Amino acid sequence: MTASDSGIVRRVLDGDTEAFAVLVARHHAACLRLATHVLGTREDAEDAVQETFLRAYRYLVRYEERERFTGWLFRILVNQCRTTLARRRRGESLIVDGALALGSWDDDVAEGAERDDMLRTALARLHPLQREAVLLRYSADLSYEEMAVATGAGVSALKMRVKRACAHLRAMLDESIHA
Question: Which of 103, 111, 115, 165 has the most CB within a 10 Å radius?
Fold first, then answer.
């Protein structure tokens, strides 16, 4: 039987520090995927994820069991990604799996790598807060409530960011397809 995240956190806090490796193994891939989408490079993403797990371990006593561990961890990761982006002072190329609620793609117009390049370019042109919201919603598959915990923004603000991001992405992709 697999232990819950909160059960593993209790074990770590009770002195079984090696149990933290279970949390890392369980969540590392999702964190790396999100950080890569947000930061654009695998190297920056790996650094951000490593720092995220160090901070999570250091501040594990602040985790509240009523909260989903993934949401708490993603909040740390989002803040770490924001710090990395602020240091760079520029946007990066991004990619998100799927169509991001953009409506159906016309596979005759754009396929595979071409479609990914178009989406990556469009995402890079979004406002950073819109890009972050759309990635958390569709790439990390967080609920709006979990996104609110991760970002500190209100649910209604996040819904609006996602809605506007999708509208901007649709427009940019239509422009790319018909250019």
Answer: 165
The residue segments making up the domain with residue 52 are 5-88
Residue 47 lies in a domain: yes
Long-range pairs for 61-70 at CB < 8 Å and ≥24 separation?
61/13, 63/9, 65/6, 65/9, 65/10, 67/149, 68/5, 68/146, 69/5, 69/6, 69/9, 69/23, 69/27, 70/5, 70/27, 70/30, 70/142, 70/146
Clarify whether residues 10 and 78 are in a common domain: yes
Q: What is the pLDDT of residues 56-106, one digit of tens each?
A: 999 999 998 888 899 899 999 999 998 888 776 543 333 344 444 444 444
Domain count, the chain: 2
